[in-house]
Amino acid sequence: MSDAEKTGSANFLYGVAETLVRFPGPVLLAACLTAFNLYWLVGWPAQPDPLVRPVNNALVMSIAFAIAAQLWAEASSERLAAFILQASGVLFFFWLWDVPALASMDPLARKVYAESEFASFAGALSFNAGLGLAALALLLGLAPYLRRQADSEAVWQFNHKLWVAFLAAGFGAIVLYVGVWGAIKAVETLFVVEVPRIYDERMFVVAACLAFPLIWLTLIPREFSEPAKTGRDMEFTSRAVALLVKFIFVPLTFVFAAILLVYSGKVLLTGGFNEARLGQIGVIYSACVVATALLAYPTRDAGWFMATFWRVWPYLLIAPVGLLIAALYIRFANYGVTPARYMSALAAVWFAALIALFALSRSRADIRLIPGLLAALLLAAAVGPWGATGLTVSSQSARLEALLAKNGLIDGGRVSAKASDGAWAEADQNRASSALRELHNWSGMERVRLWFEGDPQNPFSEPKYASLHANAAKRLGVPAFPIYRVTGPDAGRTFSFNFRNMGAVRAEGAKWVYGPRYVTLGADYNANLSYPAAIPALEVRRDGELVKIELGGRSARFNLPAALAAHSPVEPVSRELDQALIITPQDGELRARLYLVGANGVVEGEGADRRRVIRWMQFYVLLDE
After folding, report:
1. Which residue did the predictor score with more confidence, 277 or 497?
2. Residue 605: which region, alpha, beta or left (left: phi > 0; alpha: psi -120 to 50)?
């Protein structure tokens, strides 16, 4: 080994050792995350143990919090306080995600608990992991500047290096995984061997859970007071950002500002607008303006063009935020609160606060307020009855109750027996279906439990949480899935069915399960079913309009169009099923069933001659012998 190679190896090992000394807590947590996933995710099971998600959530949030605490400690020389904070954070996040309660149960009890309480998704306080992690990510860049006056130039420079390091670490982890994957494929191709997939999976876990955080921690800057570079002193990444901001981002910002300003005038004149699309446009454009302002901060005095943008950027938010608030008012009044609308409203509050702070101060306000305010709002939205989850549940349950009352289907807090007969106005039925789905998706079905007490068709008598939505929809007489009208040249003639929860495929008592298989049903069946020699080979054939499954000289025939017709109305639609269709054979000696999870095609004929012609399907074959 040459002296240069020895020096390079020594520098690399020194860098790793330095990272271990600087960030012992985050490195230890990353190692625990890696070891946990290597043990629990071997073979990538379709339905992992309910313990997997909460432990991963707790560990990832603990790592982010520990990094923030360590950066704060380095800037304020509070080492002992940082250690206490990190240990307390780990305990808090593990409690928050019910990890001690779930770990104390046997696997079956964990499965029942997770299905009935949804605890592995909601946490002890119905905490939203995505919002909480986003808030922690913003706090990472502010952590060194929480207890002292800070130069805004230094804040910008530290965050610039922090997130460039994040991107570099992500790229490095991807290269590591792709490199190992390529090496495995090369060995398989050149030596005609089959390498077990488990090695590929394990390398993915190592790259994502260990290599990525280690690289990032190694690259996080130690200097917290370095000012942002300007002019000829800019390093490559700062110069690249400055060029993009000046010649692309800022001009596009002005162009869209002009478009929205003209549109605002049109709205004032005509009094009408598309609130659904306008809300999305308002959030996206306003967020781009704020991001552009942050990126432009070091070059805000570099010429009249950038100086003008820096002075006027808060005012560019006024028109889109005004339109956004008007659009949200209409959407909330008509459709209630959903997490997406809640986040749009949260964004509107953030934008309005930035307008007030930076317009009144003539853009001289501390730039720490931009990510700091957003982090505070995200944390507030992540938990509690006022949060995105809690407010969605309360709004949608009130909306569903109001729809029941409007149609005379609830009396004394109990759902009327005639509800299951479909005694709804058509428009209200679709709204009720939408509200029920939101309650199910966000763990809010407990809000309607009292409506069915003493009811012989009580949907809560079914112990599986996955079945609760379908049973409640049946009892209320509303669709358990949204109906989407098809557009395009085949509008009104096409249909499709898809099972929404592929992870819930079960053996249903079968001896063998083949699949999943994707089969094109055209003039001939393109089955293409191949299995290892140790497994008996199945054949799929066409027999008129029937599907014929053959195995070892025996066969079974299935009438798929008739099966789909029995589970759906006649009109062509696209639907998402809560439960897969188990289809028994029309005839044949082979003891088999089809577990249909997806199909599409066209409806031909008119009146009594209407029939479904299936073009494609996805299924499992369940053999009972």
Report:
1. 277
2. left
- 419 membership: H or E segment, kind and range: none
Q: Tell me how far apart the alpha carbons of residues 101 and 159 are, in angstroms, rounded to a whole number.
A: 38
Instruction: Encode 483-540 in three state secondary structure.
Output: CECCCCCCCCCEEEEEECCHHHCCCCCCCEEEEEEEEEECCCEECCCCCCCCCCCCEE
Please say whether the beta carbons of 568 and 460 come within 8 A. Answer: no
Q: Could you give the C-alpha distances from 220 to 50, 77, 78, 497, in angstroms and in order?
A: 34, 18, 19, 49
> What number of helices (H) and strands (E) belong to the chain?
22, 13
Tokens in use for 623?
């053999």
DSSP for 223-282, written as a single string: -SSPPPP-GGG--HHHHHHHHHIIIIIHHHHHHHHHHHHHHHHHHHHH----HHHHHHHH
- The residue whose two tokens read 């669709």 is 479
Question: Quick check: 381 and 128 in contact, CB under 8 A?
Answer: yes
Alpha carbon distance 361, 373 (integer Å): 16
Token pair in block for residue 264: 């605002």
Q: Give the pLDDT of residue 525.
A: 42
- Say how far apart CA 200 and CA 177 lie, in whole Å: 8
Instruction: Tell me which residue has tokens 């599409």.
Output: 600
Partners of residue 577 on adjacent β-strands? 499
CA angle 93, 97, 98 (to 5 degrees): 115
**Choice between 347 and 530, residue whose per-residue pLDDT is larger:** 347
Classify residue 386 as exposed, middle or buried by CB count within 10 Å of its CB (0-12, 13-18, 19+). exposed
Q: Two tokens at 168?
A: 């570099």
3-state secondary structure of 604: strand
- Residue 439 CA to residue 441 CA, distance in Å, equals 6
**Closest to 336 measured CA to CA, from 436, 412, 422:** 436
Question: 264-308, pLDDT tens digit by residue?
Answer: 888 778 766 666 577 788 899 999 999 999 999 999 988 899 999
pLDDT at 5 over 80: no
Residue 441 buriedness (CB in 10 A; 0-12 / 13-18 / 19+): middle
pLDDT digits (tens, 9 = 90+) for 121-167: 444 455 677 888 899 999 999 999 987 678 899 999 999 999 999 99
Instruction: Find the angle CA(126)-CA(128)-CA(133) to the nearest 5 degrees.
Output: 140
